[in-house]
Design goal:
two-stranded antiparallel ribbon, 6-stranded antiparallel β-sheet, 2 helices, alpha+beta
Length: 140
Amino acid sequence: MSDIEATTDPGLGQFDLRGTLLERMGIAIAEASAERTAGTMPVAGNTQPAGLLHGGASAVLAESLGSIAATLHAGPGRAAVGVELNATHHRAMREGLVSGVATPVHLGRSLATYEIVITDERDRRVCTARLTCMLIDSRT
């Protein structure tokens, strides 16, 4: 069981996704924990003018999944803020749904780094990303 119930509902446990970029791009979180966070995003509506999945959309999915996982690792009263993101795009997509899974590379007290693998519906790798987040005290 994950820390966040599998849902497409924008209210996601401690995360209120209503009105966020995730909601706008159709990103749905399927599971979330510090050890594994997974979600999906439609290609439709997230393309460049040539009709291909926009690389920036893949980056948004990757950073979203990694940031949620890092925030869960940080714990109550703390937050994760991205300080570095890189992404390698392996395959073009014109339609369908992509899935992403964030898994930890390093889980420290002040930094957390995740690898995020994005695949197509046939489980072919579309993008590989790495996100490093600084873990800070929340301001809420």
